[in-house]
Amino acid sequence: MVGPDEYHEGVDDNAYTNVLARWNIERAMDALRWFEERDAVAAHSLRERLELETPELLEWGLVVENIVDGYDPRSKLFEQFAGFYEMDDVDPEAIASKPLAADLLLGREVTLRSKVVKQADVVMLCYLLPDEIDDDVAYANLLYYEPITCHGSSLSPGIHAALRRGSAT
After folding, report:
1. Catalytic, out of 6, 36, 132, 146
2. Could you give the CA distance from residue 31 to residue 40 in angstroms, rounded to a whole number?
3. Closest residue by Cα to residue 92 from 78, 103, 102, 82
4. Can you give the C-alpha Rg of the chain in angstroms?
5. What are the structural domain ranges in the chain?
6. pTM beyond 0.85, yes or no
7. pLDDT by residue for the chain (169 residues), tens digit each?
8. What is d(CA 136, CA 20) in angstroms, rounded to the nearest whole number?
9. Was domain 15-168 assigned CATH 1.50.10.10?
10. 6 is catalytic
């Protein structure tokens, strides 16, 4: 799956995709529990219509517990996707003329194998889930990803600015 960073497609264990998938599954489970507490008959009818059996719900719980998110509690960083840290470094000066597409600045082949992002998936993730991701974690990720982000998407500068502002409070 690919997240907001469209420079790296077909990657495994993208933090943005996996954490949002986990969040969605958790909210679905929360909603079902809420519904069952308020109207067990209607909830049962819904489960029957959806063919949602207990074994599937148990699988959902296993996914929530075991999905890879690339988070390292020591550094407080999310690895954007499995293998991102092993990619080639890019001199931040090489992309200093942002916002401009990195593949135009560096070439598509260099961009594909480098730690340079169109817009940081992880920064977007921290912005979207402020109740799930502590401010210090969001700020650590902002500081890590900002220098290697080209802001090749119109959403990117605003999300970085909003997260920076939220982290300053």
Report:
1. 6
2. 13
3. 102
4. 19
5. 15-168
6. yes
7. 567 788 888 889 999 999 999 999 999 999 999 999 999 999 999 999 999 999 999 999 999 999 999 999 999 999 999 999 999 998 888 777 666 677 777 788 888 889 998 888 999 999 999 999 999 999 999 999 999 998 888 888 899 999 887 665 4
8. 19
9. yes
10. yes
